[in-house]
Write a structure and sequence with these properties.
alpha+beta, 4 helices, 5-stranded mixed β-sheet
Length: 96
Amino acid sequence: MSDVVTKAVDALNEKMAGRPFDGSAKFVIEGEGAVIIDENGAHAGDEDTEVTLTADSDTFESILSGDLDATAAFMTGKLTVDGDMGLAMKLGSVLA
């Protein structure tokens, strides 16, 4: 597992503490790996989920740090979404 994925798991678990997420989502960080988010929090993995979000590591880190809004990243083509768009929007509000 890459350092980027490890840091992403830690950051996502910190952001989601006490904020349940009812669903399953996968963040694919290009060239690094994938992070799964579900009702148990975040962990490294590559299992099937209801929605998959894909971005490069710089975009992903900017979204996590709050420097880039996930919706803006999607609208500018920096973030792609495959699957349940409603769940992706819900995830965005959990991470905001």
